[in-house]
Write a structure and sequence with these properties.
Elements: H1 13-32, H2 38-64, H3 68-90, H4 98-108, H5 110-115, E1 126-127, E2 130-131, H6 138-149, H7 155-169, H8 176-190, H9 201-220, H10 227-259
Antiparallel strand pairs: 1-2
Helix pairs in contact: 1-2, 1-10, 2-3, 2-8, 2-10, 3-8, 4-8, 6-7, 7-8, 7-10, 9-10
């Protein structure tokens, strides 16, 4: 397996700028409001962010759970990991190291971690028709991925690139999706973007299909950007755009209510 080189990424900068503009407009409303109380807007912002953080746990649990009992177990672990991430962000700590990746893995998939403490998977795994890299290559690939991330300046591109490539590597024996999506959201929330998640069954099927096809084409033409890889990045940006817009609209509505 050859990792995507960041220079090869075709990124929708226009959509990324739109997301950034929406979030900046939201903060301007909160900070510089004169016609109504700013605390109303801040409360609306906090309520919407808290709602997204709650959904982040619920939806991520639903993504992989096979039974109701599993969903409850996963959700509890994910809530712990969200609290951990929020506390790290509060202390100005962004996600950038393998140690942090294992911290998330331990919180999100404690049973798998206890079976292989601080180790990557020891067996071959497959995602649909895509065969993930051999276990002996995992350490080198993950280290290279963290190195490649240092070359990416745009925080959105960095988070989405990490998500795509680490799912493709699939380093853990279990809990890869939950752990990787949480790491991505840590990076997004640190940069004051909203967390994102898969909302429903149809979106989940699209997500899985897009990743599998992206990985298969990257296996046939190593390191070459393709339409399915581009589709994944675009779908993730759409999720960000939707959540950023929801935050802005919630804050704006609070202000309009006060003015009325």
């Amino acid at each position: 397996m050859m990792l995507l080189v960041p220079d090869e990424i075709i990124f929708n900068t226009e959509k990324a700028e739109k997301i950034k503009d929406i979030m900046e407009s939201t903060y301007r409303l909160i900070l510089y409001s004169r016609s109504h109380l700013a605390d109303d807007l801040l409360n609306a912002y906090i309520d919407q962010i808290s709602s997204f953080q709650e959904l982040l746990s619920i939806k991520n649990a639903q993504m992989e759970a096979q039974t109701e009992e599993e969903a409850i177990e996963y959700e509890l672990a994910l809530k712990k990991s969200v609290s951990f991430v929020v506390n790290e962000i509060k202390h100005q700590i962004n996600f950038r190291t393998e140690i942090q990746l294992f911290q998330l893995f331990r919180l999100i998939s404690p049973e798998a971690h206890s079976n292989h403490p601080n180790k990557y998977r020891q067996r071959l795994v497959q995602i649909g028709k895509y065969l993930c890299p051999d276990p002996f290559r995992l350490t080198g690939l993950v280290s290279e991925l963290f190195y490649q991330m240092t070359k990416i300046k745009n925080p959105l591109m960095k988070a989405l690139y990490f998500h795509h490539e680490l799912v493709r590597i699939h380093p853990f024996s279990d809990g890869n999706g939950r752990t990787i999506r949480m790491a991505k959201n840590w990076m997004l929330m640190y940069e004051l973007y909203p967390p994102i998640f898969i909302s429903d069954k149809a979106e989940k099927l699209e997500y899985v299909r897009t990743l599998e096809n992206s990985f298969l084409l990257l296996t046939r033409k190593e390191g070459k950007w393709n339409s399915w890889t581009e589709a994944f990045f675009d779908q993730e940006l759409n999720r960000l755009l939707n959540n950023a817009s929801a935050i802005y609209n919630r804050v704006l509505a609070a202000g309009n209510l006060r003015e009325a």
